[in-house]
């Protein structure tokens, strides 16, 4: 039977799963130097997360119905613990790639069932409120891990900061909490394979989130090495927190807009905010970097995220789960491939040139997707809803 405490316990667990994902972000440059690699290799290791996400996203959409929702959350927590232990035992860039792979699998498993499980635990199965809880807890976790590591690093450089041990402690407590949660019996005959689906009119929204998350990936994976050139490496975790978690501040506004308008606003904000943060990173202006990441977060995790997924769900009809998988497939492609290419440019031609090329590509992409949105013949009058990452 749903109780007021059960949703809070699940939200705590989801926050701890995503907490681990960017826990190591402020140490990316240190790992690269320790292993003797550059920005390109760092971006490849960072993208190990996507390699973990995609198989689950593409092929295992029905896994929660097969083995139960609680089991998936427990597996995801276990993988986050294993990833943190791996980085504690053998810090380095190759180990980071393995840890990111484990974290990608865990996050995908949690995403596959988080909103549905939260709805079941809430009184009367409030889907809208469940999605809001999941969005808030996961977005907070994604940014909080990196920020907390930066706080510990302010007290002195370390490859094993206290934030790693804190995550292990809290994640173990979360496992005990989830173990006591109720769960519905699994459906043995539920289909396991559910391929992504792209309904007519949804491509523009998928391309918009691809551009948005490419910007987020660049901030997480490549900005630390650029900031280090100006003696600001310890602030990398705060930039990660700003570019992810601050998007929560703009979600109430985005919910009141139509999906088309919310996405269009995000596409206008994105290149402007990137220009500010890239200029700040190149010049070593920390305030510009932080303001730029907050503005980028309004687009990436506010307007484009909420508006895009709401539009896709509206267009999908009864195929909402498969359409959401298709939306996130494009999102995670943006989270990886552009970041790898930009990292290679940093190694070959320098950070300033790479940031400029990425910015020009982002501007052209936003203009093209904006025109594609304007040409869309689909009517989407409903306000945006809160999704789960």
Structure characterization notes:
It is built from 17 helices and no strands. It is mostly helical. Helix 12 (236-245) runs parallel beside helix 15. The two termini are 26 Å apart. It has a single domain, classed as Up-down Bundle (Growth Hormone, Chain: A), CATH 1.20.1250.20.
Residue runs with pLDDT of under 50 for 5 or more positions: 385-389
Order of helices and strands: HHHHHHHHHHHHHHHHH
Strand content: under 5%
CATH top level label: Mainly Alpha
State Rg.
Answer: 20 Å
Structural class given helices, strands, pairing? mainly alpha
Largest sheet: none
Name of the CATH superfamily: MFS general substrate transporter like domains
N→C terminal distance: 26 Å
Topology of this structure?
Layout: H1 5-19, H2 28-35, H3 39-46, H4 48-59, H5 63-67, H6 69-89, H7 93-121, H8 127-153, H9 162-179, H10 203-221, H11 223-228, H12 236-245, H13 251-255, H14 259-283, H15 286-316, H16 320-349, H17 351-374
Helix pairs in contact: 1-6, 1-7, 1-8, 1-9, 3-7, 3-16, 4-7, 4-16, 6-7, 6-9, 7-8, 8-9, 8-12, 10-14, 10-15, 10-16, 10-17, 12-15, 14-15, 14-17, 15-16, 16-17
Short description:
By secondary structure, this protein is mostly helical.
Keywords:
389 residues, 17 helices, globular, disordered C terminus
């Amino acid at each position: 039977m749903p109780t007021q405490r059960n949703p809070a316990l699940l939200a705590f667990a989801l926050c701890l799963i995503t907490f681990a994902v960017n826990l190591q972000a402020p140490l990316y440059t240190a790992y690269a130097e320790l292993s003797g690699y550059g920005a390109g290799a760092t971006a490849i290791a960072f993208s190990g997360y996507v390699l973990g996400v995609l198989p689950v996203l593409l092929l295992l959409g029905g896994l929660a119905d097969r083995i139960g929702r609680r089991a998936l959350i427990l597996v995801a927590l276990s993988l986050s613990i294993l990833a943190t232990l791996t980085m504690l035992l053998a810090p380095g860039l190759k180990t980071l790639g393995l840890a990111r792979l484990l974290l990608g699998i865990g996050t995908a498993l949690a995403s596959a069932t988080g909103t549905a499980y939260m709805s079941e635990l809430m009184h009367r199965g409030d889907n809208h409120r469940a999605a809001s809880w999941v969005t808030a807890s996961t977005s907070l976790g994604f940014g909080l891990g990196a920020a907390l590591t930066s706080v510990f690093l302010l007290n002195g450089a370390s490859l094993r900061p206290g934030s790693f041990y804190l995550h292990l402690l809290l994640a173990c407590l979360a496992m005990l909490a989830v173990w006591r949660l109720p769960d519905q019996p699994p459906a043995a005959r539920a289909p396991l394979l559910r391929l992504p689906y792209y309904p007519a009119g949804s491509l523009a929204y998928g391309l918009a989130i691809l551009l948005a998350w490419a910007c987020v990936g660049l901030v997480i994976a490549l900005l630390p090495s650029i900031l280090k050139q100006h003696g600001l490496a310890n602030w990398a975790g705060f930039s990660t927190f700003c570019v992810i978690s601050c998007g929560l501040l703009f979600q109430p506004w985005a919910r009141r807009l139509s999906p088309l308008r919310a996405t269009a606003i995000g596409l206008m904000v994105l290149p402007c905010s990137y220009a500010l943060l890239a200029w700040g990173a190149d010049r070593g202006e920390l305030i510009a970097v932080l303001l730029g990441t907050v503005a980028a977060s309004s687009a990436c995790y506010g307007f484009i995220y909420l508006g895009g997924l709401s539009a896709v769900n509206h267009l999908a009809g009864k195929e909402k789960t498969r359409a959401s998988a298709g939306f996130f497939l494009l999102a995670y492609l943006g989270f990886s491939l552009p970041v790898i290419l930009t990292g290679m440019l940093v190694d070959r031609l320098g950070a300033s040139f790479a940031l400029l090329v990425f910015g020009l590509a982002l501007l052209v992409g936003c203009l093209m997707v904006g025109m594609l949105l304007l040409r869309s013949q689909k009517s989407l009058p409903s306000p945006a809803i809160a999704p789960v990452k």
